Amino acid sequence: MVMKYQPSHCGNICMWSSFGRVYAGAMAVTAVSPESEELRILLNSWLIPNDTRQPTETLPQLMRDARGWTDSFPSVAVPVAGERTEFLRLRDDLRADVADRSCARLDGWLTDRPQAVGLAAEGSLVFRGRSGCVEELLRLAVRVVTQGRWRRLRMCPDCRWVFFDQSRNNSRTWCSMTAGETGRACGSIAKVQRMRGRRAGLPQTS
């Protein structure tokens, strides 16, 4: 089976095989899946904590805890020494794609590392071939795309936290309107800033 990825329609993957064409489009889904949550948590291994407001890289620390890694990321093996730089680069590229509402970088990785795909009896994807941590992260991202959930992953324009947008029309912008583990209330902060700007007669931005 050959998989053709279509970056111009992020969320669409076409698979062609001898037994016909299977199309997995951008389904109207709003519920979080185990795969989308696993990917979201992994993407947030780079973050800006609410207390320090300083960019923080937690991936090296996570890699040192094999049991904790397996609990958090069951689909992805712990990167070993020779894989860590490339794994980090893929993580950063996926974050950039989420920020851009794009699939371009993911598509580039799939071009460089094409994945052989089959279908299980119940219709789920089965990946074949080499299965290092980089391939496993790619496959996790592909599963999220084929579920129609890739476009539901959004990045807060302020704190850069990746969240899953469960709004009906997929229009949420900010991590949260209230401070907590899922964000620092960037929506409320932006709202207050806009209000103060209007009162001061300053030009308004989104």
Give the SSE layout.
Layout: E1 2-5, E2 13-17, E3 20-24, H1 34-43, E4 46-47, E5 56-57, H2 59-63, H3 66-72, H4 84-100, H5 104-112, E6 116-119, E7 125-128, H6 133-146, E8 153-155, E9 162-164, E10 179-180, E11 183-184, H7 186-200
Antiparallel strand pairs: 1-2, 2-3, 4-5, 6-7, 8-9, 10-11
What features would you describe in this structure?
The protein folds into 2 domains: 2-165, Jann2411-like fold, CATH 1.10.3300; 174-206. Helix content is 37%, strand content 17%. It contains 7 helices and 11 strands. The strands form 5 sheets. The chain has a 3-stranded antiparallel β-sheet, with helices on one face. Strands 4-5 form a two-stranded antiparallel sheet. Strand 10 and strand 11 form a beta hairpin. Helix 1 crosses helix 6 and helix 4 (84-100) packs parallel to helix 6. The chain is globular, with a radius of gyration of 19 Å. Residues 1-27 have low confidence and may be disordered.
Overall tally of domains: 2
Uncertain parts: 1-27
Number of strands: 11
Secondary-structure element pattern, one letter each: EEEHEEHHHHEEHEEEEH
Oligomer: single chain
> Strand order of the main beta sheet, please?
1-2-3
**Quick one: biggest sheet?**
3 strands, antiparallel
* CATH class type of the largest domain: Mainly Alpha
Number of helices: 7
**Averaging pLDDT over every residue, what do you get?**
81
How large, in whole angstroms, is the Cα Rg? Answer: 19 Å
Structural class: alpha+beta
N- and C-termini, Cα separation: 45 Å
Strand content: 15-25%
Outline, from the CA principal axes? globular
Which architecture of the largest domain would the CATH scheme give at its second level? Orthogonal Bundle
Q: Looking at CATH, which topology of the largest domain would you report?
A: Jann2411-like fold
Fraction of residues in helix: 25-40%
